[in-house]
Amino acid sequence: LKRAKSQKKFVLYHHESLNAVKQRFSIETDLRRAIEKEELELHYQPIMDLKSGRVNGFEALARWIHPEQGFISPVDFIPVAEESGLIVPLGRWAMYQAAMTIADWDSQIAFHNMGSAPKIGHADYKISVNLSAIQILRDDVVGAVRDSIFSAGVDGHRLMLELTESAFIDDPDGTLKLLNRLKSENISLAMDDFGTGYSNLAVLQKLPIDVLKIDRSFVTDMGQDKEKNAIVSTILSLAKALDMQTTAEGIETSNIGCALKLLGCTFGQGYHYAKPLKSDEAFQFLSNSFVSDII
Ligand code: C2E
Ligand code: MG
Ligand code: MG
Ligand code: MG
Prior knowledge:
By secondary structure, this protein is an alpha/beta fold. The chain has helices spanning 7-13, 18-37, 74-84, 87-114, 133-138, 141-152, 172-184, 201-206, 216-219, 226-241, 254-262, 279-294; strands at 40-49, 55-66, 70-72, 126-130, 159-164, 188-194, 211-214, 245-249, 267-269. Strands 1-2-4-5-6-7-8-9 form an 8-stranded mixed beta barrel, surrounded by 6 helices. Helix 2 packs across helix 3 (74-84) and helix 4 (87-114) packs parallel to helix 6 (141-152). The radius of gyration is 20 Å and the shape is globular. Residues 1-12 have low confidence and may be disordered. Bound molecules: ligand C2E and magnesium ion (3 copies).
């Protein structure tokens, strides 16, 4: 508790047991080291174009393999990164890594297509990176994005940033300005976990968002739950009216995938298609998706 500097932090910790507090501090210390030593990895979960059945892109998801504790879920370490400010270097690392991966896969595809094997089709896939509300408050996001796409030599539209409704709570006007600046760099934008947060429809209408991602809490069991089904349909009509594309996250069965396709949802993501994959497996998944189409 002594280390809690602000009143706000004290409030956050004071219900925790001493053990929980100790654990949090050790996660924070270890995470700082993990970022420096590059113990973090990005995994890539395919996002499918529901109409064509092809890969449209991937979501980059951070993974931490701790030397003693093994796998630590982002659900546990991202909040610690946000509270400690470590989300700034972590977020920059993720953006840079994702842009480099696009450049790497593009060159592998170009190299492959010079040979005689069946060609990998024109793959204008995107990679999305999660952007935390704290990064928006504490970092120069436009600068970070420009550094990443320039170093990798990729066009801005190949990189998508996913932000949640919480990014609009503290400074809605500032966030809107940021999105417009990102758009002028040609960056693709998605609203993540849509439907779970603070939704101001008047604000949503003004946002230069390309894709609304429907939160998986509505999608996964929309087959058994009529109300969730109605929420999904409503979000799909809203997106259509606002001229935005849609991604349903958490598709675990082919039935749900088919239903969403019929309802006009643009993209789908979930264990039914693939779990988040290591970089080389994700590249295989991408190549197969395009080659199998030609054979
Ligand atoms: P998210 O951005 O909403 O990412 C989707 C999460 O849903 C991922 O969890 C993914 O593995 C999971 N998922 C995808 N399909 C299914 C499915 O069919 N069923 C189920 N049960 N789950 C599915 P993950 O990788 O554990 O990440 C959790 C959250 O951590 C992410 O939610 C995101 O908010 C955050 N996160 C992960 N990596 C980063 C990062 O690099 N930066 C930031 N700021 N946040 C990150
Ligand atoms: Mg996301
Ligand atoms: Mg999400
Ligand atoms: Mg989510």
